[in-house]
Design goal:
The protein is mainly alpha-helical and 207 residues long. The chain has one domain (2-184). The chain contains 7 helices and 4 strands; from the N terminus they run H-H-E-E-H-H-E-H-E-H-H.
């Protein structure tokens, strides 16, 4: 019953949010087009429920082809690939708003482990695969407990704790804490030279 309620809440909030925020979404789309040539949305393949892949929607915050430049799929604080509008969108987390579309499509939830890249799933052990037993979320327990400052193993452990302790009340707590994290603008980026696996700076900078 709780899962049915969770899905109902997801549908209700995402539909109402898209309707009420439509003027804001249109304004952001125009700002992106005027600021830097390229598409409004950034779409990327992610692993969802049971490892099934889907295309995640985000407002584009970087130059076209950014994944093939600089730090690749990782983003640093002073990353030159980030556009002027993109910097503002990232600081306010407004770039995540298009994921409300993914929620309506049934690919994501408001709260859950963040959707990961397929190649990362290939490195999961049996225990870590449990992370794929629920729909990925726009926000999650790891996002309100360290965000980008966490190493990948730390993030997975927090996600597994969420799965073991999930309740609608915990989801509500995470949503409220998410607003606090956004306002504080804490841990938006990984430190320059940060190794996302070990959490340490590499001895040599090859980027």
């Amino acid at each position: 019953m709780q899962y049915i309620i969770k899905r109902t809440i997801d549908l209700f909030i995402s539909f109402i949010a898209l309707f009420l925020l439509s003027p804001v979404l249109i304004f952001i789309a125009l700002a992106i087009k005027l600021d830097c040539p390229g598409p409004v949305f950034f779409r990327q393949e992610r692993a969802g429920l049971e490892g099934q892949t889907f295309k995640i929607f985000k407002f584009r915050t970087m130059v076209v082809g950014a994944e093939k430049k600089g730090a690749g799929v990782f983003v640093e604080e002073k990353d030159p690939r980030i556009t002027r509008v993109g910097k503002l969108l990232r600081h306010t987390s407004l770039d995540e708003l298009p994921q409300l579309i993914n929620i309506l499509k049934g690919e994501m939830s408001l709260v859950g482990p963040r959707p990961t890249l397929p190649y990362q799933v290939e490195n999961y052990d049996e225990r870590q695969m449990k992370r794929l037993e629920v729909k990925p979320g726009v926000t999650g327990w790891a996002q309100v407990n360290g965000r980008s400052a966490l190493t990948w193993p730390e993030r997975i452990e927090l996600d597994l704790w969420y799965l073991d302790n999930w309740s609608l009340w915990l989801d509500l707590k995470i949503i409220l804490l998410t607003f606090k994290v956004i306002i504080s603008k804490s841990n938006l980026y990984k430190p320059d030279g940060y190794d996302p696996i070990s959490g340490q700076k590499p001895k040599s900078d090859d980027s």
